[in-house]
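User: Some background: our group keeps a shared notebook of sequences we're curious about, and every so often someone picks one and asks for a predicted structure to add to the entry. Today it's my turn. The entry only has the sequence so far, pasted here. Could you supply the structure so I can complete it?
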Amino acid sequence: MISHFSNAVATEAVFQIENVSVFYDSFEAVSNVYLDIPENKITAFIGPSGCGKSTLLRCLNRLNDLVPGAKVAGRITYKGEDLYRKGVDPVEVRRRIGMVFQKPNPFPKSIYDNIAFGARINGYRGNMNDLVERSLRQAALWDEVKDKLKQSGLSLSGGQQQRLCIARAVAIEPEAILMDEPCSALDPISTLKVEELLNQLKENYTIVIVTHNMQQATRVADMTAFFNAKATEKGGKKGYLVEYDLTENIFQNPQQEATKNYVSGRFG
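Assistant: Of course. Here's the predicted structure to add to the notebook entry:
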């Protein structure tokens, strides 16, 4: 039997990350993170390569379950519900907490079916044409594709493909959307369109974004978490949270020396 979340009363913090460490077999990739992520805001994870940003992001909808040897220690709650509690269905977790990846990955299907596919699998009973149009409008893509819905999603430009992937995530009616460097493969104009879209989407969704682009974090994020990494004895890197605050504080008045050095470009 599929176990769904209870509809716990949402608090200001929609995700609560308490003493979370992530292991791949015996290797500790992320260590002892405490973080509260607010509802209907954009929270950015920034930091140098190898500091665990994407690893932690994937814990928020249990995508790390799909990685052999991955193990999450500590507690992650979403709207008060322990995401890793026995009986919680990870498929349902991923429906309610959507993901947009670094590289646009449309299905090799029509633009229409890219949107409709997930809704059909999830048993959507409403008007599919309306859902497709609404999702594409939410992703600021409708006007560009409304006359070619039968064409392949792969025929679109890179920026359009990424917005199609965002529309696809929105179509299954999630409550939160995770984005792992969604603009790193895009040109500056497409990046700007996605950033404008993010500011519109946060009215309805909680968004967590991993970005290497510090200017992007300053443009779109309400909150910013800065991660760093330290070398381990075995030659790997262990990521940890250095500082978490309002974005303007992280960039204009950081409390930690490492944060100050990173946002000023001295390392990273």
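Suggested note for the entry: The first helix runs from residue 53 to 59. The chain has one domain: 13-263.
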